[in-house]
Amino acid sequence: MNHIKVPALKIEQGPGRALFSFAIRGKEIQSIASISRVKRHEDELVGYQRPEVSNHIGDIQRYLESENPMIPNALVIAFSRAVKFVPSSENSSFGDLVIPVVENDDDKPGLIVDGQQRAAALRAAEIDTFQMPVSAFITDDAQEQREQFILVNSTKPLPKGLIYELLPYTETKLSAGLQKRRFPAKLLDDLNHQQSSPFYQIIQTATNPTGVVKDNSILKLIEASLTEGALYNYRDPSTGKGNDKKMVEVLSNYWGAVRDVFPDAWGKKPKDSRLMHGAGMTALGHLMDAIFDRYHTDEHEETVTYEQFKADLEAMKPFCHWTNGFWDFGSDDTESKFGVNRMKKLVVIYSGGMDSFTALHKAVKEGFDVYALSFDYGQKHNKELICAKNVCTELNVPHKILDIKSISNLFTSSSLVSDDIDVPDGHYEAESMKSTVVPNRNMILISLAIGYAVDIEAEGIWYGAHSGDHLIYPDCRPEFVKVMDQASKVANFEPVYVHAPYLDTDKIGILKDGIKMDLDYSKTWTCYKGQEKACGTCGSCVERLEAFEKNNITDPILYIDLVN
To answer: Are residues 148 and 197 in the same domain?
Structure first.
């Protein structure tokens, strides 16, 4: 049998607890270690790793193939006792690990506990000499392997705000997503820290937590303008960068005019000013691009002045209601295609998942006066309610969480609420997924939402049913929505309509719509299991991951083996 001998450091961490630290050529990892895929064999849990995430692997591979890559975080490998440590001298901590090399994956001495995405990228990358650090332990105990897997993957990720603040001060090549945001983050940093900027110290960041406008809101409007707006005129498309001084000048001229035209709304907390809200910032960002196009003639020299921006903003001032009152979008009698005036109240049943998250933002962006309603019906995945609360707070949308956990006593057949039934893994098309049906759930929730709508004089309710749900959930079928809409309109003296905006599309299409709205899906929770991280294997996770893969983007939430 062939062997690989690598110099290693033995680190004693307690009686019988030793780690081995070493480096190995990346291409050699596949010859000594395999992946332990999570599955069930005769009702016994086997393995712990979920399927590879192709987008994430692709990002790592591109980074490895870039100039001077560096990966400081080590792979974690569990070796069987076929691997031996040979000290260089008696009782020495230095020596060699002797590792058998076998062809068959089932017989390989190592199992990757942490780093399967990096290992896959190393295997695919067109590099040969890259040395990868490894931290290993020796055990034949599958339970210990799972324990280490859980511990490694239970750490809390860095806050995105901190990442954005650090980005301008990095030079090395990062993942594609972070590289794309590096230059916008620099512009944001300049706006927040230049005393001449209208945003001086009012953007909320890790080092400026008292700021009143979200950093992500400013990043989004900057990115939009860089793509096809005012800032694009000073951008080098080949690098994604450009004349940052000119860009900051444009931004300062415009937003300085916004500040001076709307002084009563500027600098307030989003709950007190629609202008400082993410939606207000986004809308005014688009307006900046439109006004810029009216005046700009020489892309190399002149820019649009503060006075020009201010003149156009003054013209629209009488029609703006940032801190009180209502926005008048026209006095005609035209109604939307759903039979409701866009300024009317709307109740959105909001679980905190992807579908309802997109529907909620769609309603907000279409101009409805949105009231969100969530339900605690005893679901194991009640983490979704925390996500729902946070999003509604950010959007300044009125939000109620209705406690109806007592009804879970009636639904002993559903794995989502019953402690006696495990949530199954697999695709929604699998027969086992029928256990996730909560009997009559949507009729119950919709009925309560209709009552709430009547009470607040809302004219309709939305919920997130979609075509992908039709196969397994009967209360997501078009015929159900139709009859509930009919019943709702006769159940009260004031008719309330029932609508599912994504009834005719699937989760792939919902995500595509959300991408167009530039939504941040890290603020959602989809997994049916009540764990710290998403499992990646239940039907809900499988469908979510498929949607992200089909849209060629990486899911921003953490899964139990996803490495940042």
So the answer is: no
Query: What is the residue range of 444's domain?
Result: 345-550
Asked if residue 40 lies in contact with residue 29, where contact means CB atoms within 8 angstroms, the answer is no
pLDDT tens digits along 334-365: 444 333 334 578 999 998 899 999 999 999 98
Are 308 and 430 contained in the same domain?
no
Residues 28 and 12 reside in one and the same domain? yes
For 373-477, where are the alpha helices, taking DSSP H only?
A: 383-395, 441-456
Q: Tell me: do 223 and 365 sit in the same domain.
A: no
| Amino acid (one-letter) located at 382 | N
Buried b (16+ CB within 10 A) or exposed e, 489-506: eeeeeeebbbbbbbbeeb
Identify residue 545 by its one-letter amino acid code: L
> Which range, of 198-202, 407-411, 500-504, averages the lowest pLDDT?
407-411
Do 273 and 377 sit in the same domain of this protein? Answer: no
Q: Are strands 399-403 and 345-349 parallel, antiparallel or unpaired?
A: unpaired
Residues forming a β-bridge with 5: 98
Does the residue 405 lie in any domain?
Answer: yes
pLDDT in tens, 512-557: 999 999 999 999 988 887 778 888 888 888 889 999 999 999 999 8
Q: Identify the CA nearest to 120 among candidates 60, 38, 194.
A: 60
The answer to whether the beta carbons of residues 19 and 11 sit under 8 Å apart is yes
Q: Which two tokens stand for residue 130?
A: 């890259």
| In a shared domain, residues 510 and 530 | yes
3-state secondary structure of 297: coil
CA-based radius of gyration for the chain: 27
